[in-house]
Amino acid sequence: MSILVAYGSKQGGTAGLAEMVADALRREGFTVEVAPASAQGRVEGYEAVIVGGALYAFRWHRDARRFIRRHTHVLCNIPTYFFSSGPLDASASERDIAPIRSVRALMDRVGARGHATFGGRLTSDARGFLAHLMAKRNAGDWRDPTHVQSWTHAIAADLRAPLRKDA
Length: 167
Prior knowledge:
44% helix; alpha/beta; single chain
């Protein structure tokens, strides 16, 4: 089964999470491609899509939102999952964090099967005025590979479920 992992990332943390998701799914036996949401022209031909977006000021990354709008007609007909990144603490590893309202609306739009929120990353040399100010007091990396692995394992099981029913 071929899977696309598309992401919107400003500082690179969400791009890293997309690679973690892809690596975990490859270990599950899937063929996975990773691409920035802004650069992905077509989704036809993929059997599942995962879209990740960084959260900034309670908004999902613009490239992820645009990707969903651009490909709604295809995403409605294949298994689709979302993830968000952003909390600059361990909260995402400690409990499930529901998607923000706008992400929930996009999930409903395409019938997404699931969502996870992962911890974010902010480097001390972050670009952008607000990011730079935040990094002065809250730089760090809260992306949890175990959390990512657990979520992707659940996706793998979900994707395999119809195959077992047909057997």
